[in-house]
Amino acid sequence: MDGFQCARKIPPCKYVDVCCLSTGSTCQLGEGLSKQHFASLMGIIRTRGTYEPGERIFKIEDDFLSLFVVQSGIVKIETVSQEGDNLVEGFYFQGNLIGLEAVGDRKYRYDAVALERTRLCEIPFAQLESLCSFIPRLQHRLLMLMGERIRQTNDVLLQGRHVCTEKKLLRFFQMLREKGQAERVHLPMSKTDIASYLGVRPESLSRALYKLKRNGHIQICPTTKEILLLSKRW
């Protein structure tokens, strides 16, 4: 079911260590908290999922109620342009925090869609905000995460202005390789989604893939939807 219409009781999260402490997580809300404060944080986090590929986690104009941490799987966020085209704004992997852009707003401004089987940790924002009022370390960590998100967004905008499609694509593959910690990069997203995220036309993306393969930078495995990066620098 899309959104938050279901009033069922959600069980406590079984993966709170992955969501809030794991060194592999970019969230790490629980970093530096005392055992007592961490237990308070653990008490508000709930499990959501499993979401199947293509299933919405929330949609545009749903009430903003929670932040989410990806426990497993991959999520894309997308919105709609004035012309009615879907615009992919980001991909979220294990340990990534979803929903920070909605803080201070009453509504989500994009759809969140699972790209493969996905489980999430849900953090109700009203309860998190209440905890922050008496746990300064938690409030500090949340503000740091918001600052990191702003810097990442600015970096993407600035670096993408004068970079050719081939370099954009290679940087994207490198980012996926670092997140997956494997030489082969799995691509659960479509070429159309990648092109939208990079801000290029699908036909330009196809030409860039051909050039990268021809020049020996990548190998493409179409049957497994994987890319093998051959170049260490670019």
Sum up the structure in keywords.
23% strand; 234 residues; elongated; Jelly Rolls; 2 domains; four-stranded antiparallel sheet; alpha+beta; Arc Repressor Mutant, subunit A
Taken together, the total number of domains comes to 2
Q: Radius of gyration, Cα only, in angstroms?
A: 19 Å
Remind me, CATH topology of the largest domain?
Jelly Rolls
Counting DSSP E segments of at least 2 residues, the number of strands comes to 11
Give the end-to-end Cα distance, rounded to a whole number of Å: 44 Å
| Strand content bin | 15-25%
Helix and strand string, N-terminal first? HHEEEEEEEEHHHEHHEE
Find the CATH superfamily of the largest domain: Jelly Rolls
CATH level 1 name of the largest domain: Mainly Beta
Which sheet architecture does the biggest sheet show? 4 strands, antiparallel
Molecular shape: elongated
Number of helices: 7
Strand order of the largest sheet: 1-8-3-6
What structural class do the secondary elements suggest?
alpha+beta
Fraction of helical residues: 25-40%
Q: What is the mean pLDDT?
A: 81
- The second-level CATH architecture of the largest domain is Sandwich
Provide structural commentary.
By secondary structure, this protein is α+β, with helices and mostly antiparallel strands. It has two domains: about 15-160, Sandwich (Jelly Rolls), CATH 2.60.120.10; about 165-230, Winged helix-like DNA-binding domain superfamily/Winged helix DNA-binding domain (Arc Repressor Mutant, subunit A). The chain is built from seven helices and eleven strands. The protein has helices at about 15-20, 35-40, 125-130, 135-160, 165-180, 190-200, 200-215; strands at about 45-50, 55-60, 65-70, 75-80, 85-90, 95-100, 110-115, 120-125, 185, 220, 225-230. Strands 1-8-3-6 form a four-stranded antiparallel β-sheet. β10 (about 220) and β11 (about 225-230) form a beta hairpin. α5 packs across α7 and α6 (about 190-200) crosses α7. It is elongated, with a radius of gyration of 19 Å. The termini are far apart. The model is unreliable at about 1-10, about 15-20 and about 20-25 (pLDDT under 50).
